[in-house]
Design brief:
The protein has 7 helices and 11 strands. About 35% of the residues lie in helices and about 30% in strands. The longest helix has 15 residues. Helix 4 crosses helix 5. Strands 1-2-3-4-11-5-10-9-8-7-6 form an 11-stranded mixed beta sheet, with helices on both faces. It has about 260 residues and is α+β, with helices and mostly antiparallel strands.
Length: about 260
């Protein structure tokens, strides 16, 4: 469900931006754009490596992205039966492993969690475009998105996260009245995806990311979600374990 949730949210993001194109074929799910960042040019999933034309197909896809002279990323999922073989093929195509992300899941059937109290900390939903300045102030520096990259990221999150029936829900946490952290939740059927967990540098190591994540999960649980999923950094794993998440998969990132 981690992969499917990511695929669905990336399709929505591509559909909401004229600069992004989503492509789904029998063997591949990917998207591309004219933006110079691997976040906006990505192969999310590839299956059928045993097919006769798979090697030439992978080479063709990689060549397509390389011809744009823009960075792109290719995700390799450890629970796929051909993950090791795909890694070798990607390296043969000149892609380099840049890192990994543990994919984690949490059953919400009987989930409860009491977040440690943070004095003067308040969480609010972002309900209007004017309030997105809080999201930008925290998320863009945390993810290293500046200029048109930051503008494109903000625009997509505004289109998908503002309005009564918006598929995304953004939350901002205030500490002593100042915006300190944000989180985004995406409810996809009974699965709740947690994204964009970020805390301003001056407010880190105070439990803000954990409190925001727990709040978003409670909201999703109340709305009918049966499972929460997310992609973590290595440093974040212990935080999410404390919330009840368990590692389900390792996502390796290859950059071209």
């Amino acid at each position: 469900m981690i992969k499917q949730n990511m695929i669905h949210i990336m399709k929505l993001m591509s559909d909401s931006s004229p600069r992004m194109t989503y492509v789904k074929a029998p063997q591949v799910v990917r998207y591309e754009s004219d933006l110079a960042h691997s976040l906006f040019n990505r192969i999310i999933a590839y299956k059928g490596l045993q097919a006769e034309d798979a090697l030439s197909d992978i080479a063709s896809i990689a060549s397509h992205y390389k011809s744009s002279k823009l960075p792109f990323s290719w995700l390799n999922w450890s629970h796929d039966s051909d993950a090791a073989e795909l890694a070798s093929v990607l390296e043969e195509q000149g892609l380099k492993k840049s890192g990994h992300s543990p994919g984690m899941a949490l059953s919400l059937e009987d989930w409860t969690y009491q977040a440690p109290a943070i004095p003067s900390f308040v969480i609010k939903p972002i309900l209007a475009n004017s309030e997105l300045s809080w999201f930008k102030e925290i998320a863009l520096p945390a993810f290293g998105l500046q200029g048109e990259l930051g503008d494109a990221f903000t625009q997509v999150n505004a289109v998908l996260g503002i309005g009564e029936h918006a598929p995304l829900r953004h939350y901002v946490g205030f500490l002593d009245g100042r915006p300190a952290g944000v989180v985004t939740a995406f409810q996809d059927g009974e699965t709740l995806g947690i994204y964009n967990v970020a805390t301003s540098e001056e407010f880190r190591r105070r439990g803000i990311g954990s409190a925001l994540t727990a709040h978003a999960i409670r909201e999703g649980q109340a709305a009918g979600s049966k499972q929460a999923v997310l992609q973590s950094s290595d440093m974040g794993v212990s935080v999410y374990r404390a919330l009840g998440f368990k590692e389900e998969v390792i996502i390796d990132f290859y950059i071209g």
